[in-house]
Amino acid sequence: MAKINILTKDIYNRIAAGEVVDRPYSALKELVENSLDAGATEITIYVEKGGKQLIRVCDNGCGIEPDDMRTAFIPHATSKVSCVEDLDRITTLGFRGEALASIASISRTEIVSRTDGNEACKVVCEAGYTGKVVPAALDRGTEVSVYNLFYNTPVRAKFLKTDKAEESDIHSFVNRFVLGNPKVRFKYYADGKLRLESFGNGLDEAIVQVYGAKTIPECFRIDAEKNGIRIHGFIGNQNFFRSSKSGQSLFLNGRYIVNNTIASAINNAYASYLMKRQYPFYVLFVDVPIDMVDVNVHPNKADVRFVDPREVYGAVYSVVSGVLDGTAKAADFVVDYARVPEVKSYKPQQTTVKEFVAPSASEDGAEAAVSRREGQTDAPVQSSVRGGEGAAANATSSKPPLIKDDRRPEDYEPFILASSRVPVKEKYNPPKYADRERDYPLYAYYSTDIKSEHELGVGVPRYEEPGPGEFPFRQIERPDHSDEKFRCSEYTYKGDMFNTYLIFEREDDVYIIDQHAAHERVIYERLKKQMADRRVPRQGMLIPYLFRLSPEEYSFMSQNLEAVRSMGFDIEPFGVDAFRVCEVPVDLYDMNFEEFFAELFSDLDGLKAIKVEDILKDKIAMTACKHAVKGGKKLTPREAYELLKDMNCDMGLKCPHGRPAVVKLTKKQIEKMFKRIV
After folding, report:
1. For an engineered disulfide with 583, which of 121, 165, 465, 570 has Cβ 3.0 to 4.6 Å away?
2. How far apart are CA 408 and CA 525, in angstroms?
3. pLDDT per residue over 139-154, tens digit each?
């Protein structure tokens, strides 16, 4: 057996640092917890290069006595525990006395502090070796600066994330401190920029600073006590969810934790209201007697253990589910019913012919009023609202107004490569298709009352009245199909089945084409090619769409901003934690931004390994499905041939979702069906 060695101070401090301080955010967490335990009411945080170069925490707490400043760097030195019995009634955030020693062993740490009645003093500790206490200048409290974190542990430094990603994680923890300590004023600076500031005016103000002012009206404020357990804070209503868990903050006796028992209780209470990839929003405080919980079970104190988990689960579940389900006891749990959002019924607006009405921000996200076309009745027109009944109340800012044709989608059906196909008033009867050697061009139909090119967007052609004897439609330029494997003229159109399946015959083969799946694939390939060529036409918006992001989402968007722009979005940072969209791809002009970005950020850990181009391709596949000709719509022979040409006569096509677009039957197979051959 090898000789047993007693580890030296520098070795066991680095081992402890590996458990306590694994990332810059964990070092910051320990320092801020020390400030809160010192009774600070104002805390300022400075971070440079994601905390790798500098982490500084300044507070106005009670400070450190000059005689104790060097002692603070000794392992297991703490002012919060004096005897073994204190471990059974821990009420402070820190108590082990190993955080500062661990941080100092892997960095250059400097403490400047001043207590009442004493002058300010400074001490420096580098790589675990503490210097002398010297006079310094400080008005009040303590200032701890950590320089060059992990400079002497290159193996650990290799596993750190990028500066932006590390700063994003730090920002997330600062948000938790702001929410968990609403009476404390926080300022957070990253690389010299003020990223977050709270004023210590209560939980309402803290939530507004972290999540924005629109969050409060979508939440219930609750305060309940059950079986000696107090549950208070904010929970989202039955229609308010987030696309990730970044909107979930749980505090047990003032300590931020991630606990499966309480999280399961909340998720199960929301189970009947949640849809796929939706997560409930809550900022919840759970206060339990100190003898019911053990906080000394996790290296980072991120989790706790309950004496009776079922009791805690039952208390949280009954309170949250009672509020959501509107039980009789909910009135006792909800603090302020005025905060309960009301679902307003949407009242359609009536406008004059060709009138464009800008949307009003005061109508709870209702769709913009639409103009009625000539020849319609005087009945008011109600625009379709995405999401079904009641969605108007939750669609605020999700679909900003665009400079586009204000007709309703049901007024026309978009079809083959036409930006805005509208049936013309003059009825046209196409010729019969006896001559199959003729190549039929692609035609786009335009109404005589179409709006100007500026209103519809750049590149949209205008309708021109045909001259005498001219064909009354305008031909669109299309690619040359001379090198196709088979020319379209080799296929004979035989009709359709159920106004959905087109039948073409070629020699001894019959092809049955699903018109929706085939057209969907045609549109999808066109949009994908535009993305690849970076030639996506854009549509400007009257009012930019603004959206706030959590630190993780902001970091993700910043890293992939150029990729998103290359897809046809004019998007740029706006303020501290927000972005704005000024232009969108023309083919996505009617997209629901709230749903789109919710899907984009639905799984940040997974999305970081996926290209944003692939995400947008999925979105465009949905758009192609939406704009493709629907099953049940009768196509003329000319339109059937045009669809075949756009398919390049590729009979192996599949729709973007994987369904076959064409089924082939040979003459032999058909004759076998009828027992003409064996």
Report:
1. 570
2. 26
3. 999 999 999 999 888 8
